[in-house]
Amino acid sequence: MKRTQLRETIFKIIFRLEFNQPPEMPEQIDFQLEQLKKSGGASPNKKEEAYIREKSLAIIDRIRELDDRIEQSADHWRISRIGKVELAVLRVSVYEILFDDDIPDKVAINEAIELARRYGTEESPAFVNGVLSKVAR
What we know:
Elements: H1 3-16, H2 25-39, H3 46-61, H4 63-73, H5 84-99, H6 105-119, H7 124-136
């Protein structure tokens, strides 16, 4: 799988956090990985599955810290007002900017904008770009 596909899978898992409690997330990760295998598209190998699982759980473990940073960077937007798609995109990308040294900030931001474009509203890419630009400073 390409890194973009791995990130999209992680985004989908983090999106599920809006509808599930953190203790349920390992099961949700398993479900998402199973869906990938059934889809007939690119399936992750064992190393990629481990990466998806580890990164998803790392994001979930730091969710409060990530949300605080998002709220600080999103002028006049509380977490509860941010759309679920945009919030999941931001959580993944803020994690990458703050804690994943293997991913350059510009790549994290560009990939987030693409996810927001694909899954969000017309305004989503601009909103995500604005928040992440402030986080990256």
